[in-house]
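Hi everyone, sorry if this is the wrong subforum. Our group has a chain we'd like a structural model of before ordering constructs, and none of us has done structure prediction before. Sequence below.
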Amino acid sequence: MNNQEKTARPVLEVSHLGIDFGGLTAVDDFNMKIGATEIAGLIGPNGAGKTTVFNLLTKVYQPVRGRILLDGKDIGNMNTIQVNRAGIARTFQNIRLFEKLSVGDNVKIGLHNSIQYGMWSGIFRLPKYWSEEKRIHEKTLELLSIFDMQDLADVTASSLPYGAQRRLEIVRALATEPKLLLLDEPAAGMNPSETAELMENIRKIRDQFQIAVLLIEHDMSLVMGICENIAVLNFGKIIAQGNPAQIQNNPQVIEAYLGKKKEGKP
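Answer:
Right subforum, don't worry. Here is the predicted structure as tokens:
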């Protein structure tokens, strides 16, 4: 496969994805394509099924219908760990850090996919072990520098302010070297200036790492300002897809968010 073909192929291609819980359909006939370096958005009212989609993509839940292709490869039979190694990393709506560990150690845990020494090198502290530890330490500081957090490497994760914990979770996800980064409400709890900074950093991450980003977000200024394509989910089904201008002017989207006007009411 030449470089042109690889660039043209979507990094993620989801077809007719679905799952049911207790006889209720949570996600149904979900279809989406994301380009290799695209920033895409998944929006919708509370309870629409957005996080469930993330859980399906990362195999927290196994889909009962549909197919997921990651960089052209069917990941249907993979578990969560295998999907991460294949190239999908995520953050969570509720921050999930190793709170008692340092900032640096949280990132190093994310780097486990790239560790190149074996068990015996680790047990006996052979030269390979020390050279790898040095490389991992340098890589950790490099990743933290994306958010100017390298000086916080020895700080306990739980002592960070809320916004910094959000940023650390993104750094840890990047440490697994993903092809696709899933961000679940990354701006939650952030003030407008932090949100604006986050927007620039998401672009920076996309450009620096040449990866795709799919984000769930309720902050419409962030979504409309950064996403090239947006899918709108309501009651587990996609009701609209398109660029920000198309989404903002879509009657179904307006109705899903604001409710339908009553007859005779302005």
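For your construct planning: The two ends are 57 Å apart (CA to CA). Confidence is low (pLDDT under 50) at residues 1-6, 262-266.
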